[in-house]
Design a protein that fits this description.
Helices cover 42% and strands 21% of the residues. By secondary structure, it is α/β, with parallel strands linked by helices.
Length: 208
């Protein structure tokens, strides 16, 4: 019986990549998307790619960051899925290589229990191009899920993970059910289940 479900955020619970959307709003979208694409396919080290992408946001007004993150689009079926999981008594957590400003705002809309992500450094009302936080490395999700399981007293067989990109593979190793959602081929190889329909409600069928 599943007791803990851990979700990726970008292109999983949220329809798109937060950093790409921020970059578009700041006029550096093409440069950032090229790095994102390589990172999600596992061609670039996650820490290096995150640092390079955030550096391109140097000087972006924090007011614009807040505006963009307040208008991110939920993935189809996200709210219904989280509601369905919580009705089953499952703890729902988000691990994001993206940013707390996005995951914290969407938590209020969707209702998951908590999120672990990164923080965009700001000074004098603008981004500095620096970033820090809980999900800075390709192995971060794997390390964090082991800690969560220990704190909650949950086993691997009682854990489900859902994600779409290469950096989700580290947490898939520690889950009895791992769902590659509209995912890159590199992640599908690590998954117990694949959902290729862009509707998160399909995941409830796996539990049924």
């Amino acid at each position: 019986m599943i007791k803990l479900c851990v979700f990726d955020f970008d292109s999983t619970l949220m329809d798109g990549e937060t950093i790409d959307i921020l970059a578009d709003a700041y006029g550096v979208g093409d440069k950032v998307k090229e790095i994102t694409k390589k990172a999600m396919q596992g061609e670039l080290d996650f820490f290096e790619s995150l640092s390079k992408r955030v550096a391109l946001l140097n000087g972006m007004p924090t007011s614009l960051v807040s505006e963009v993150c307040s208008n991110l689009k939920q993935m189809n079926g996200a709210k219904e899925l989280v509601k369905g999981l919580k009705e089953r008594g499952i703890k729902v957590i988000v691990f994001s290589g993206g940013f707390h400003i996005a995951t914290d705002l969407m938590r209020e809309e969707i209702g998951y229990d908590e999120s672990f992500a990164n923080i965009l450094h700001e000074k004098d009302g603008v981004l500095t191009g620096l970033v820090g936080g809980e999900m800075m490395f390709g192995f971060s999700k794997g390390e964090m899920i082991k800690r969560m399981q220990k704190i909650l007293g949950v086993s691997k067989d009682e854990t489900m993970c859902v994600g779409d990109g290469a950096n989700d593979a580290s947490m898939f190793k520690h889950a009895g059910i791992s769902v590659a959602f509209c995912a890159k081929e590199i992640l599908k190889k690590s998954a117990t289940h694949c959902v290729d329909t862009k509707d998160l409600r399909e995941i409830l069928r796996i539990l049924d």
